[in-house]
Design a protein that fits this description.
This protein has 74 residues and is mainly alpha-helical. The chain contains six helices and no strands.
């Protein structure tokens, strides 16, 4: 039976991505081995500490709060 290569590389890709986002290799290794799905990872400290509002602003994204204030005339 042939195994899909994406299944084997998924933790390594996650680890590389977390290191690029500024996590230490030890934390990146531990978090990349998580069995959590996308939604659970999104609500966990994994992304809460790596993908911050400031990092998103640097990439050109507008935070929802700023967008809401702009369109609601608050």
């Amino acid at each position: 039976m042939k195994m899909d290569n994406n299944v084997n590389n998924k933790p390594n890709k996650r680890m590389r991505s977390l290191i690029r986002l500024g996590k230490s290799p030890g934390e990146a290794y531990a978090w990349s081995r998580s069995r959590m799905g996308g939604w659970r990872v999104a609500c966990s400290p994994i992304l809460g500490t790596t993908v911050t509002i400031n990092r998103l602003k640097q990439r050109g994204y507008i935070p929802f709060e700023d967008f809401y204030r702009k369109i609601s005339h608050v």
